[in-house]
From TrEMBL:
The lineage of its organism: Eukaryota, Viridiplantae, Streptophyta, Embryophyta, Tracheophyta. It comes from the Eukaryota. The keyword Zinc applies. Residues 501-635 form the SET domain. This is Uncharacterized protein. Pfam families: Pre-SET (PF05033), SET (PF00856), WIYLD (PF10440). GO terms for cellular component: chromosome; nucleus. Residues 103-120 have a biased composition (Basic and acidic residues). Residues 399-498 form the Pre-SET domain. It is found in: Chromosome; Nucleus. GO terms for molecular function: metal ion binding; transferase activity.
Length: 674
């Protein structure tokens, strides 16, 4: 039998006031509730008075505007009230009387957000009671100057008026030191956020650490009144820690206890899942902290890591290529990649990162993509209608290479397929391709009317671009594709099947940064991988290079120029290239070797019968030992003073190295080579 109403009223009020709610508010809200529910105590007592708690949380006299505002704030803030609600839930108080779950749900108008917070908050319970209000709004980052000439980042909340407590995110060694080391890039990262709770006046967040090769120095600011209560060691690779400090001098004697980090992580992961809808199954709050920390370091130090973290690339050789220079691989310390498989499952084989990672050194971050993807404006006509009978073998079946006579798909390669039945390039075909690269003068060239490469090299003082330097006419491989009748495993489909070799990304012992190698012995003519990246137009490439700061890396995308000779005057919006800087595959790790690299690039026609767009594939030029580095000739002319860009000091080690007398060049332009 249920208790009398007066007793139930007393119990409800006691329960709420025990939690910290003010008695008069509780009484007022409870009376309203009883009226609304027609004295139905079961609904009120259900779920530890959750309806009552919610209404108290939402209550702000009877001003609907104010209430609305408060509700909006609650979306972003854990208010003190709501934390009290958590405490009630955590105490596990049982309602005085049971109630049917469904009717309870129908009647209890608990705002969704509050329900969410209740669930998330369980782990934190009373410990986090007032502290969590700072983390909810996305801060706006602005540069400013704080104190002794420290360049600073200020994390500004867009809605400052809703907070009261100063929250400072500051660098390192900040605490307890009195000066910075005088470097201009010393940084203090400070933010002012305000908590909803009047009493809580001193939660500070500080981040501490350093990157091994980062050029940043660290801000050192005297904050005598801060005591560090709580440190979160970040991963060893980040070599840093976040310190959450409570400033007792500002806290008005309020009793604040730092929760343990596991609880915070669990609660934040739950919050990210429910509130922010971060659905990544392996989401880790600790990783988020690490990433945040890394960004702060990168941005705060003004180091190249931040601006060029998404840099990488190569250089081209002979005529049609260039690539992305990458000077930061050694210094990036954050673990962005899966060291067991840099492709993150995108390829048929796993490609591990070896050497270096054990010392906390990782390749620069980039998005791994197994196939080229258009950045924005590049137009590629992939229509089936364009593939005529002469460009496909619709009558074939099974393996075209097993047929007694070559089909239409062999026409491009002079009536002979480029591949052997073993999936290697035929000797004669490979020899001819190597000769095109190494002895270009022996081969015919075509000359653009107006060369997109020369246009790109123009500076503001040039009236018109230089004459085209000529593009050697190159052999193509043509593979069977969708309109062909053969099978997926047809021998004339090698590149499109993707990487099959046992490759590794490894830190080279010399000064070249990361490189690519094979963990197995490779025969001559073996397909290694495609050069995969974003498909850019010449205009986009130009734009991209201009946006790079002078300290950032240059990009050296592979120019798809094999067909420029047949296209009349090619506009910048039409000329295409591949850029693996931000989105790319393992080819972005292949280093340059003058002249005698053990792999070469060959254009491959797959989906498009014209050669305006095509694939760039790498094949071995000779037998390659297991664990020998894979290198190709980017085609850099290190002595060409007209090149607007200084490439890099070549450490290829080849006896044919062309980088013997270099002239310093330092303009921020794409290096386009032939
Ligand atoms: C496409 S990336 C190759 C991967 C790069 N090593 C990395 O760590 O990401 C091209 C950059 O590697 C470096 N590199 C490649 N070949 C080199 C060589 N022969 N000598 C010195 N540096 C080289 C240069 O910094 C160049 O800009």
């Amino acid at each position: 039998m249920a208790a009398p109403n007066a007793e139930r009223f007393r119990d409800a009020v006691k329960s709420m006031t025990d939690t910290g709610f003010q008695k008069e508010i509780v009484v007022r809200v409870l009376k309203k509730l009883l009226k609304t529910y027609d004295d139905n105590w079961e609904h009120i007592e259900a779920d530890n008075y959750s309806v009552l708690v919610d209404l108290i949380c939402a209550d702000d006299d009877s001003n609907p505007k104010e209430r609305q505002k408060k509700r909006a704030e609650k979306k972003n803030l854990d208010s003190d009230h709501c934390n009290k609600k958590l405490r009630i839930k955590e105490r596990g108080q049982k309602p005085k009387s049971s109630i049917n779950g469904s009717s309870k749900r129908e009647l209890a108008e608990v705002p969704h957000q509050q329900k969410t917070e209740a669930i998330e908050g369980k782990t934190i319970g009373t410990q986090l009671k007032k502290q969590s209000s700072h983390v909810m709004k996305e801060p706006k980052v602005e540069r400013t100057t704080i104190g002794e000439s420290s360049s600073a980042l200020v994390l500004k909340n867009q809605d400052n008026h809703t907070f009261e407590t100063p929250l400072a995110v500051m660098c390192p060694t900040v605490l307890g030191h009195s000066r910075h080391d005088g470097h201009e890039d010393a940084h203090l990262i400070s933010g002012v956020l305000r908590a909803s709770d009047e009493k809580l006046k001193g939660v500070l967040v500080a981040c501490e650490g350093q990157m091994a090769n980062a050029c940043s120095s660290q801000a050192i600011v005297r904050r005598k009144d801060i005591c560090t209560d709580f440190e979160v060691p970040l991963s060893s690779s980040a070599q840093g820690k976040l310190s959450f400090s409570f400033n007792s001098s500002l806290a008005n004697g309020f009793d604040f206890h730092m929760p343990d980090i596991e609880s915070v992580c669990k609660a934040m992961e739950a919050r990210c899942l429910t509130t922010y809808k971060i659905l990544e199954p392996n989401f880790s709050f600790m990783k988020l902290l690490n990433d945040t920390f890394q960004c702060i370091l990168d941005l705060g130090s003004g180091s190249d890591e931040a601006s060029a973290a998404f840099s990488g690339g190569l250089q081209n050789n002979y005529s049609n290529m260039q690539i992305t220079q990458n000077q930061l691989p050694m210094s990036v310390k954050r673990q962005y990649h899966d060291i067991n498989d840099i492709t993150k499952g995108e390829e048929r084989v796993r490609i591990p990162i070896v050497n270096g990672v054990e010392d906390g050194v990782f390749p620069p971050p980039f998005h791994y993509i197994p196939h080229n993807i258009t950045f924005q404006d590049a137009y590629i006509n992939l229509s089936l209608a364009r593939i005529g009978d002469e460009n496909c073998c619709s009558g074939c079946f099974g393996d075209c290479l097993a047929e007694p006579l070559p089909c239409a798909c062999a026409t491009e390669t002079g009536g002979e397929f480029a591949y052997t039945r073993d999936g290697l390039l035929k000797e004669e075909f490979l020899d001819a391709c190597i000769s095109e690269r190494r002895e270009p003068l022996k081969h015919p060239h075509f000359y653009c009317t107006v060369c997109p490469i020369e246009r790109m090299k123009m500076d503001e003082n040039s009236a018109k671009p230089d004459d085209c330097k000529g593009h050697p006419i190159k052999k193509f491989i043509k593979e069977c594709w969708r309109k062909c009748g053969c099978a997926r495993n047809c021998g004339n489909r090698v590149v499109q099947r993707g990487i099959t070799r046992n490759l590794q990304v490894f830190l080279t012992p010399g000064k070249k940064g990361w490189g690519l190698r094979s963990a197995e012995k490779l025969p001559r003519g073996a397909f290694i991988c495609e050069y995969v990246g974003e498909i850019l137009t010449n205009s986009e490439l130009y734009e991209r290079n201009n946006q790079m700061t002078s300290r950032a890396k240059h990009t050296y995308p592979v120019v798809l120029d094999h067909d420029w000779g047949t296209e009349g005057v090619l506009k910048d919006e039409e000329a295409l290239c591949l850029d693996g800087t931000f989105y790319g595959n393992v080819a972005r790790f292949i280093n340059h070797r003058c002249f005698d690299g053990n792999i070469i690039d060959i254009g491959v026609e797959i989906e498009t019968p014209d050669h305006h767009y095509y694939h760039v594939a790498f094949f071995t030029t000779r037998e390659v030992h297991a664990f020998e580095e894979l290198t190709w000739d980017y085609g850099i002319d290190f002595d060409d003073v007209n090149h607007p860009v200084k490439a890099f000091k070549c450490h290829c080690g080849s006896q044919f190295c062309r980088d013997t007398s270099r002239i310093s060049r330092s303009k921020n332009r794409a290096l386009v080579l032939r």
